[in-house]
Amino acid sequence: xxxxxxxxxxxxxxxxxKGKGKLSDEDIRKVMREVRMALLEADVNFDVVKSFVKTVRxxxxxxEVMESLTxxxxxxxxxxxxxxxxxxxxxxxxxxxxHIPTIIMMVGLQGAGKTTTAGKLANRLKKNDKARPLFxxxxxxxxxxxxxxxxxxxxxxxxxxxxxxxxxxVDIVKNGLAVAAENKNDYVIIDTAGRLxxxxxLMEELQKIKDLAHPNEILFVxxxxxxxxxxxxxxxxxxxxxxxxxxxxxxxxxxxxxxxxSIRSVTGKPIKxxxxxxxxxxxxxxxxxxxxxxxxx
Length: 297
Ligand code: GDP
What we know:
Elements: H1 4-15, H2 25-41, H3 46-60, H4 63-66, H5 71-86, E1 102-107, H6 114-129, E2 133-138, H7 143-156, E3 160-161, H8 169-183, E4 187-192, H9 200-213, E5 217-223, H10 228-241, E6 245-249, H11 258-267, E7 271-275, E8 283-285, H12 288-296
Parallel strand pairs: 1-4, 1-5, 2-3, 2-4, 5-6, 6-7
Antiparallel strand pairs: 7-8
Helix pairs in contact: 1-2, 2-3, 3-5, 5-12, 6-7, 8-9, 10-11
The structure holds guanosine-5'-diphosphate (GDP).
Main location: cytoplasm
EC number: 3.6.5.4
Protein name: Signal recognition particle protein
């Protein structure tokens, strides 16, 4: 289960406080040392942990706890609030173009879940907004990726524009956008190539697609199982492409929490959706407060 280790650790830390009437400075310091350890073990980025612990410690040593009748509950409340803040405070909706089509570009490393998430997103838009999306198959390096997108398109009854693997992805996107204009599709979702790690050639290609398509949304798809590495990679993509949002995938697995808790702070970009399974209806809007509650149990 996601965040299991982190949740257990935090619950244990806080249960040691319960029943205590007054908290001493030393009690707070001890708790914060343990919170710090729990976050580091959950693979949260070091700088993020440092500043998080500092903020919570300062608040916890302040009047709102020291003068409270229920100091331990107050500390838990502060941790809850600061975790929520760390993950972005509020849900952030998908950007929408003033005129159709809204163009969404999916980027990320290979295997992160780009193609699956493209499908999930289209499914959501079709169901909730009665949208008529078009997919563009821009991952020309893996024939399997195009096939995968076509299969998803068939399942959802959503058209896929592709030119196989022999054409330049920038041209494919250009031609796909022309088809979308002709068919008056209200959303265009561009699936792009990934690599095993950030590579200059790929970034150049993505930049060209961005310059051509002027996407309203560049969603970085991050595998939450990769922990704080996901935040680092997101930062790399953001520097090159100025991403507009993040989708965290595989939160149905036993991810430790490092990605969810680091990525917003490291990139400054909102986590917009979370993937919670392989099926096409397993994409949810990301709510930082609900995630914080899930972590605190
Ligand atoms: P891409 O290379 O980035 O396009 O990645 P894919 O969309 O092909 O996904 C890689 C693998 O991750 C596939 O087996 C997907 O079924 C799986 N996957 C994607 N999102 C999720 C998710 O939220 N949960 C789980 N359990 N698996 C996922």
